[in-house]
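Sequence, please.
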């Protein structure tokens, strides 16, 4: 084999590595996503009765607003959600229990990034019910939660590399 015969496969491998690096290199994270700047009632607030409305304020306009309120007994409180610019409001219907309420939200920022979180408030009057503990948070790492996806991506990459190199190797033998 002569030097020119080795140059063509070497260039193909170098090009493949550059393409792979460009595809697999981590993207630079966006620096500005929406963030929650205020909740009314504030997180941890103790109130006499449950508020009629829970308001979430963000630092930029949000869309696709979802709000769920969990009552002290673990049941869902019916809510009517409305959003306007940077403010999302959830009107509560039937929040009459004494104890800790959990407000969970998920919105999408203007750049398409989802933002989610929770806030709690406590009521000191109302129907007495047995307080249900909040569900445990999923503390597994990103890789543990998405291990099957990583496997599929790695397998797809191996197949892609094989499909690209196979014609080059067949040409070399001929």
């Amino acid at each position: 084999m002569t030097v020119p015969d080795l140059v063509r496969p070497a260039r193909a491998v170098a090009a493949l590595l550059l393409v792979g690096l460009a595809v697999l290199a981590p993207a630079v994270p966006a620096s500005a996503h929406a963030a929650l700047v205020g909740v009314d009632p504030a997180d941890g607030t103790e109130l006499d009765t449950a508020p009629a409305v829970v308001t979430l304020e963000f630092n930029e306009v949000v869309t696709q607003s979802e709000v769920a309120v969990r009552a002290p007994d673990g049941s869902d409180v019916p809510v009517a959600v409305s959003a306007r610019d940077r403010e999302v409001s959830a009107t509560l219907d039937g929040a009459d229990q004494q104890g800790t309420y959990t407000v969970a939200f998920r919105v999408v920022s203007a750049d398409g990034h989802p933002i989610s979180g929770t806030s709690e408030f406590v009521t000191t009057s109302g129907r007495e019910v047995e307080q249900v503990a909040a569900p445990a948070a999923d503390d597994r790492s990103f890789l543990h939660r998405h291990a099957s996806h990583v496997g599929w991506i790695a397998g797809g990459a191996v197949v892609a590399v094989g499909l690209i190199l196979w014609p080059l190797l067949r040409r070399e033998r001929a």
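The chain has a mean pLDDT of 81.
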